[in-house]
Amino acid sequence: MNVTVFGTGYVGLVQAAVLAEAGHRVACIDIDQEKIDRLKQGQIPIFEPGLAPLVKRNHESGNLIFSTSAAEGVAHGDLIFIAVGTPPDEDGSADLRYVLTVARTIAEHMEGKKYIINKSTVPVGTADKVREEVTRTLRERNALNLEFDVISNPEFLKEGSAVADCMKPDRIIIGTSENASEQKMRQLYAPFNRNHDKVIVMDVRSAELAKYAANCMLATKISFMNEMAVIADKVGADIEAVRQGIGSDPRIGYHFIYPGIGYGGSCFPKDVQALKTTATQLGIEPKVLNAVEERNHSQKHYLLDKVVQRYGDDLAGKTFALWGLAFKPNTDDMREAPARVLMEELWRRGARVQAFDPEAMEECQRIYGARPDLQLCGTKESALTNAEALIIATEWQQFKAIDVAAVTSGLNTPVIFDGRNLYDPLQVAESGIEYHCVGRPE
Ligand code: UGA
């Protein structure tokens, strides 16, 4: 099938590459000329495992083309994805400017029936707004005879495993009331819908809400566990034992109940905030979502509170090693990363930071630039040199086995603050390292 994807961000690019791999002919359209030029040369703007070879292969085969020409994009695809950004507005609601601009562009150039698919995470009611925008533009063109449908097809991929998630989706939600649209979408996703039917068809508004409900439910699980961890700390229980104890109940499950120092990334914080705003605008007090957000905010300070308890509030003259800058492993994304709160709070108290991350060093440099209280180190070992203590903010695989020799010889005094509960506290204690973690007896 001929498909067009507007927006070459995370969602758009991954979706486009995966659809091309399945044999569809996909045109990726973006207004950023430099980005498109780089994509044509096989340069991927984000770090995402498996994406670069996929893009390269399909670009070379001709299944994946890149262009800045909206007209070309609209002419190419019967199915047109809108996968542009929806940054938060000042009031926390999603800014639909880019989504509606694409809607208008499609209507300006379309000459036959188009299936317009909302892939961006957008508030309930957006499909109707897209429909209105397209209708308005067609009216201006005197072309109301041209048919179209607006379908909601939310994305559920995770950064770091985006390609795999897209290749093997748990579910394919299709929000439409038109039979023809359902059939088109089923045909599009047929290569990914092999063993059992993963397609769930519903009305547009339910599909839009399902996306927010999924992310907010996951954020709720995390904030709940983080609160349990704080309680565990105070009552002398071990949250890791509690986690296993409750996860064994299939109604709760083992997924997404890992306590830590708060969720980050571009999705959970933004989506919780956006759904809160939607609820508030409708006169509903979002009590659960308020609590989820509040817990996440304080959790990001939790490890720092332990540092302050140990060293006092004035950290001037002290250097801390920081392992992990990305908001989670396998990405270079530092949006809303707990590591940022940690670093900024350490700086505020006068401390220096020696940081290492396997992928996010460039991103850190881009965000903070050169500053005397930040040293980006080439290896995790060199970050330890002459530091007061080690702080772990991201659970990268290479941090998971404790290197007692490196920690004891590198640090001034062997102290670890672990925001991801990577190590066994007893084992660490036996090796003579002072260990502070989240919700476990220390
Ligand atoms: C999330 C959802 O998991 C995807 O299903 C969704 O499609 C995506 O948002 C989106 O809306 O685009 P993502 O933000 O890439 O994906 O990352 P997650 O793997 O969900 O992690 C989010 C945060 O939760 C991370 O900071 C992670 O460290 C934290 N987390 C996750 C925990 O603290 N504990 C857990 O048990 C799991």
From TrEMBL:
SUPFAM superfamilies per record: 6-phosphogluconate dehydrogenase C-terminal domain-like, NAD(P)-binding Rossmann-fold domains, UDP-glucose/GDP-mannose dehydrogenase C-terminal domain
Residues forming coiled coils: none
Superkingdom, taxonomy of origin: Bacteria
Pfam families, sorted: UDPG_MGDP_dh, UDPG_MGDP_dh_C, UDPG_MGDP_dh_N
Catalytic activity, reaction form: UDP-alpha-D-glucose + 2 NAD(+) + H2O = UDP-alpha-D-glucuronate + 2 NADH + 3 H(+)
Domain UDP-glucose/GDP-mannose dehydrogenase C-terminal: 321-425
Record-listed E.C. numbers: 1.1.1.22
Keywords associated with the record: NAD, Oxidoreductase
Family: Belongs to the UDP-glucose/GDP-mannose dehydrogenase family.
Protein name: UDP-glucose 6-dehydrogenase
Organism encoding this protein: Microbulbifer elongatus
